Amino acid sequence: MKVVILNGSPHSGGNTKAMVDAFAKGAKSAGNEVVECPVGSMNIHGCLGCEFCHTKGEGKCVQRDDMDKVYPELATADVVVFASPVHYFAISGQLQSTIARFYAPGKPKAQKYAMLISSASPGVYAGIEGQYKSMIGYFQAEDLGIRELNGDANKSEAAMADIEAFGASIK
């Protein structure tokens, strides 16, 4: 299976990246193809709501930015993993902009989804979980699960082993 990880963190060496790397290692060990799209550091703008994609664009967004690199990966993904740090009770703005741009081509082909979230504090995940679960319901897709890390658990050996096992469970 092809697993596409949308890494919404702008930090190349941060806690979210550690989670992504552990998950990818596990998913690869289970024989999956894994592609990480570092959307947190890509030039991706939010949806303009202009409706070009659904009128003249035939499912293509009017904007020409790095989302053009993400669309082909999403079109061939069997599993999509959202990965994000918590930025004031929400996923990163970079990941949110990427998700908003799903609007142009319509619901992604992938039928399985997972989420990785990191924070410095516990108890900040409810809004993110609600958005994720609503999206999965709208996509009529399977929720493979959510892993949350905060505080000292970030980058801990035990937590990374759990995330790696989570990745290895993807089949």
CATH fold node name: Rossmann fold
- The parts where pLDDT drops under 50 for at least 5 residues are none
Instruction: Choose one word for the global shape.
Output: globular
Strand order of the largest sheet: 2-1-3-4-5
Distance between the termini: 7 Å
**How many independent structural domains?**
1
What oligomeric state is this?
Answer: single chain
CATH architecture: 3-Layer(aba) Sandwich
- CATH uppermost class: Alpha Beta
Structural description of this entry:
The protein is an alpha/beta fold and 171 residues long. The chain has a single domain (2-168), classed as Rossmann fold (3-Layer(aba) Sandwich), CATH 3.40.50.360. Helix content is 34%, strand content 20%. The protein contains five helices and five strands. It has helices at 15-29, 67-75, 93-100, 126-139, 157-168, and strands spanning 2-7, 33-37, 79-85, 112-119, 142-150. It has a five-stranded parallel sheet, sandwiched between helices. Helix 1 packs across helix 5. The radius of gyration is 15 Å and the shape is globular.
